Amino acid sequence: MKSTLYVARTALIVALGGFLMGFDASVISGVVGFIEVEFSLTDLELGWAVSSLTLSSTLAMLVSGPLSNRIGRRSVLYWAAVLYAISAIGSALAPSYLILVIARMIGGLGVGASLIIAPMYIAEISPPLLRGRMVSFNQLNIVIGITVAFFTNYIILELGNSTAAWAQEMKFGPYSWRWMLGLETLPAVLYFFALFAVPESPRWLVMKGRISEGLAIMTKASGPDTAGKDLQEVQTSLNADAEKGKVGVAALFAPALRLALLIGIVIAVVQQITGINAVFFYAPTIFEQSGIGTNASFVQAILVGVVNLVFTVLAIALVDQLGRKPLLIFGLTGVTIAMTVLAYGFYSATYMLPADTTLPAAIDPQALQPVLNITFESDVAFKQALENTLGLSIAREFESQLIAAAISMNPILILTGILGFVASFAVSLGPVMWVLFSELFPNRVRALAISFVGLINSAVSFTVQLVFPWELANLGSATTFLLYGIMAVFGLIFVIFMLPETKGRSLESLESLLAGDSKTAPQ
């Protein structure tokens, strides 16, 4: 029990990097509408403001694993905390679009480092029977960060509308998006100092020849008997690796790693190409497309965060009982159904502005005459008509209000689809991907391999975020969500036929399993 508490406490502290990642990634969802108007952004510029963080995190993932082999897992996490703080302050004070993007990219370096190193560290300190649950703490903290970001965005939005003297003095109205971004400074500072309470990774210490230090930490984590056995397995694995020579990128493509690398790449792609970060980063925007208005869209975004949190906790409870493969099969099935519901919901919507619509004062009623009382069969056609009649800047500024006045659809269907998608993702792809990444690869190449597949995951995420505003504007919501659903089907087929179960096995025994004949590995 004492060892379990030690591992859990250590894992929770290290996983605070996940909280910062989730907060940093999702806080932008409440910011996009404000910066789009303030900086007069195009669809691709808006997508770049959101996805720039992911681009730099992709670069950080490429070097974080090898860097952690040199200076230690914990040292990399210290630097990640510093980068988060710099990014939060820089984003909040950004005087221009360019400075905002640069600040976001600095935060992305912290995201990439913590996203790779935190689950690796936790896997290396956790006993096999606890590893899935402990590594999932990182995903739990990510979704807590997402939920907190949605909640604080809503609170700041409400404070911006408040008549209280202190709220007006703090300028929550004109500087609402700056407050949203700047709040991250507090947890970043907390993370930096909390890391002083955790030890270095025991497997890293053994890898560096610091045997007694590594054994001492293993003993605290799993007891003296298990620690001795674990140490022997790690040393045997490292000795075998030493005979194979220096590790380079080419080592990842060795025949013995073919199955592990294939699984890692496919899961990395599927986790993002099914659209999760499009939902998290643009949640209020998506809900606004269903016509519920800005404030209500922020409230529903909070609901997304809560559902994500609840089902992530459920995944943590089940990942070491049911296993990784059953959760992925269940989750990808749910993602497919949810995306089909969303595609149908938006496909069946129609848009018609009645002649008696109450318009914002900034809109010239005469300018809207060409689109009044005309039924549009798609969101693309309706938004294009608004831009043609009002001009791009005015149409974008009041898009939410005009859609709310014109749309005819069932918004509950959209809410159900989004929540179903988030629940399905949270109980499967969200936490299970990082558990698999921490298990698939042998000690010798683990840091490099996780950096490599994490790089692919982040690159796909960047692409999805970048093009999402363009997709909504040019393909429409229905087609966009249908494409995500099709990707989920491909992922489901791969998981069923190619993924072996990894629960309850030591990292060293998994190396033997996955290095075997790829035709017999899945089980």
Describe this protein with a few key phrases:
523 residues; mainly alpha; Growth Hormone, Chain: A; two-stranded antiparallel sheet; 26 helices; 2 strands; 1% strand
| Number of E-type strands | 2
* Strand residue content: under 5%
CATH architecture of the largest domain: Up-down Bundle
CATH topology name of the largest domain, in short, is: Growth Hormone, Chain: A
The number of helices is 26
Q: So, the CATH homologous superfamily of the largest domain?
A: MFS general substrate transporter like domains
How large is the radius of gyration? 24 Å
Overall shape: globular
CATH level-1 class of the largest domain:
Mainly Alpha
Q: Which runs of at least 5 residues are low in confidence (pLDDT < 50)?
A: 517-523
Description:
With 523 residues, this protein is mainly alpha-helical. The chain has 26 helices and two strands. The chain has a two-stranded antiparallel ribbon. The radius of gyration is 24 Å and the shape is globular. Mean pLDDT is 85; it is low at 517-523.
In short:
The chain has 523 residues and is mainly alpha-helical. 75% of the residues lie in helices and 1% in strands.
